[in-house]
Amino acid sequence: MSGFGQRLRQAIDAFGPLCVGIDPHEALLRAWGLDASAAGAREFGLRTVEAAAGRVGIVKPQVAFFERYGSAGFAALEDVLAAGRSAGLVVIADAKRGDIGTTMDGYAAAWLEPGSPLESDAVTLSPYLGTDSLHGALTTALQHDKGAFVLAATSNPEAALLQQARVDDEESVAERVAHDVAARNIGAPGSLGPIGLVVGATVERRAFGLTDIVLAGTPILAPGFGAQGAEPEDLSRLFGYVASQVVASESRSILAAGAAGPEALAARIDERAALYRSPAAR
Fold it and tell me: Residue limits of the Orotidine 5'-phosphate decarboxylase domain (predicted)?
């Protein structure tokens, strides 16, 4: 098995940077004619995987929208994750887990160990108990050729107070997180390491200390495209030298099309993916 960074690079090179979010929140379920239930979330997720396969290389199920239905929701999520990986998609579980010690190890086993019912290619993690608290998850990822995306600069306005705070009057908290992540990627084969960062497309990343030099070689999961305001043609302007490392995540702007049926959803994915592959986005 090749490393996660290599698989991610191959997916971006083959299909472009678009990542389709799988967010079965209640309004979308009802718009699609589905019940707001675990069964509805499962059907929503499987339809999205089917429409995405062969059109993009990456999908990102939002765990919370399955978790809300309890054990049945997790069973639905297991089916969606397995379907995505079976279809050859890179599957990022957007779980934002973060804890310490054996609890973190438990999250790592759930999302990153081969054979786990929730096995994914990568998982999102929160470092705000300290990046060392993620050691178990990051070690597990490296051991099993998996990946992780660590929150660095998120787009919610209240995050800046914490993420832009200065550490020892030098680097920002977000920059410290980025440096800690970069250290995990040293020696990784290929142009991308296996451990990435979450950097919102709608934030001024340099205000967080996330310059091109700091981000070099690190995969970047960038929510904020589509309904949140950033467009494919903004990718190069927003991320400059590191634009080729970006996974551009869209959810509502794509998923809304599913209300008109599977063909409309597939057509919307084709349309958006083509925009990210166009010269204007590079």
Answer: 17-269
